[in-house]
Amino acid sequence: MHLGRDVEMINRSEADWLHIDVMDGVFVPNISFGFPVMNALRGVCHKPTDVHLMIVEPQKFIREVADSGAYMMTVHYEACTHLHRTVHAIRDAGMRVGVALNPHTPVTLLEDILGDLDMVLLMSVNPGFAAQSFIGHSVVKTAKLRRMIRERELKTLIEVDGGVNTETARVLLDAGADVLVAGSYVFRSPDPEATIRELKAL
After folding, report:
1. Would you state the pLDDT for residue 76?
2. What is the CATH number of the domain that holds 50?
3. Four-point Cα dihedral 81, 87, 92, 94, nearest 10
4. Segment 34-93, tens digit of pLDDT
5. Could you tell me the residue range of the domain that residue 54 belongs to?
6. 182 CB neighbour count, 10 Å cutoff
7. Is 119 helix (H, G, I), strand (E, B) or coil?
8. How far is C-alpha 176 from the geometric centre of its chain's CA atoms?
9. What pLDDT, on a 0 to 100 scale, did the predictor assign at position 113?
10. N or C: lower Cβ tally within 10 Å for the chain?
11. Given phi > 0 = left and psi -120 to 50 = alpha, else beta, which region is 80?
12. In the structure, what pLDDT confidence band is assigned to residue 130 with cuts at 50, 70 and 90?
């Protein structure tokens, strides 16, 4: 009920991006908000928006995501039959492009597309609900992806989303993560700005 207030807090904070989860109730068992809310955010959010589409057929909404002012559009490997085509359509629309992997999906499936990506998002919980427990194998997965990126001499970022707090964040950063998404840990803390500052200091 206080989205504007929370976005103003993000604007003041040391957060680099605002991560936006879009869910359709089909790809994941939950529904979030859609383009009317995202378009409203465009007028008040001063940080680049990192839009994560947890939906079926995300390629149908590339133009709408671009029109909302998104900096990064991330689609799921599991939701895209023609991933290469979708990746390049996102880039052609003027956005950076990311591909997300569910916890059970191996990073090796990205070998043939990794060089076309600005970012890989590793889900460290099963997507769809906040405040889930961190899946420990995500650390091994992060390290494996970092080796793949290093071996190819790429600049692809690794983003990890799910169960991020100061304890898991440190381990993930040591494993090679570049970007961490923290939702419940930040917004349920007594002082969200201080919590963001603490995470940024790691």
Report:
1. 98
2. 3.20.20.70
3. 130
4. 999 999 999 899 999 999 999 999 999 999 999 999 999 999 999 999 999 999 999 999
5. 3-200
6. 23
7. strand
8. 16
9. 98
10. N
11. beta
12. low
Cα–Cα distance for residue pair 181/21, rounded to 1 Å:
11
Q: Is the pTM of this model over 0.85?
A: yes
- Position 129 scores a pLDDT of 65
Amino acid letter for position 161: D
Q: Which of 93, 50, 92 is nearest to 75 (CA)?
A: 50
Q: In the structure, what pLDDT confidence band is assigned to residue 128 with cuts at 50, 70 and 90?
A: low
CA end-to-end span of the chain? 31
Half-sphere exposure of residue 199: CA atoms within 13 angstroms, side-chain side: 25
- Residues tagged in the binding site annotation for substrate: 52, 161-163, 183-184
Return the amino acid letter for 52. H
Instruction: Return the closest-CA partner of residue 138 out of 121, 150, 117.
Output: 121
Residues that constitute the known binding site for a divalent metal cation: 19, 21, 52, 161
Tokens of 82: 């023609």
Quick one: which of 200, 92, 97, 101 has its CA closest to 148? Answer: 101
Residue with structure tokens 């692809």?
Answer: 156
Catalytic sites, residue numbers? 21, 161
Collapsing DSSP states into helix, strand and coil, what is residue 35?
Answer: helix
Total domain count, the chain: 1
Question: Tokens for 63?
Answer: 């133009």
